[in-house]
Amino acid sequence: DTAVSQTPKYLVTQMGNDKSIKCEQNLGHDTMYWYKQDSKKFLKIMFSYNNKELIINETVPNRFSPKSPDKAHLNLHINSLELGDSAVYFCASSPLWSGGRTGELFFGEGSRLTVL
Amino acid sequence: TQLLEQSPQFLSIQEGENLTVYCNSSSVFSSLQWYRQEPGEGPVLLVTVVTGGEVKKLKRLTFQFGDARKDSSLHITAAQTGDTGLYLCAPNTGNQFYFGTGTSLTVIP
Q1: Which of B5, B41, B99, B106 to mutate to test the interface with A (most CBs of A within 10 A)?
Q2: Which of A24, A54, A71, B21 is the 20 to 30 A CA-CA neighbour of B83?
Q3: Are A46 and A38 in contact (CB under 8 A)?
Q4: Cα within 13 Å of Cα(B17), Cβ side
């Protein structure tokens, strides 16, 4: 079984459309993340949820809205897609951080979004 | 967001050569992780270094955490084509996982 799975793997769409990417983890982790990797391979954190609560919200346009229906799922909805949204989006999960404990990020395979 | 500079940005070497990549910051970290990302996949954890000056070995890979815990290096001995990928460092700051700028390594057969 895949530990962190994302769908779809590829998404090609027109500017102005709305799209969603889904993520599920079966590791029992409390924390999930969305990252964006641009064409220069820079991996930038967008959001982090801990047990369905938003704990990190980097400077991301409000066209991006994460939703966590339960702690095993974190979906990303994007409204009014723009050319600059083209990137690979990665979902990840990690165990709960507890003072001094060093967690590990487990990533999905990525969802490549192309906006035309 | 902390700035983590990795160098070099790109590296292309022949199989069998040795190489070192660096991760530098002006901030002090309690620990630091190294990940490798192969083409078409997500990053995978290689190692976590915790103590200043710590050296960890993973087969042909040697990781070092700086004495001041602001920087780290990764040395690969006798590189193989399977080492090709993007190497990313990430400091541990609670649950805020930020990544360095990355080093893209290509090992040519």
Answers
A1: B99
A2: A24
A3: no
A4: 13
Query: Distances from the Cα of A44 to the Cαs of A107, B4, B54, in angstroms?
Result: 13, 12, 27
Task: Kindly report the average pLDDT of chain A as a whole number.
Answer: 91
Contacts of A105 in chain B (CB under 8 A): 33, 35, 43, 45, 90, 97
**A58–B contact, CB cutoff 8 A:** yes
- Residue B80 banded pLDDT, cuts 50, 70, 90: very high
Give the pLDDT score at B95. Answer: 60
Nearest-10 Cα torsion for A104, A72, A25, A15: -100
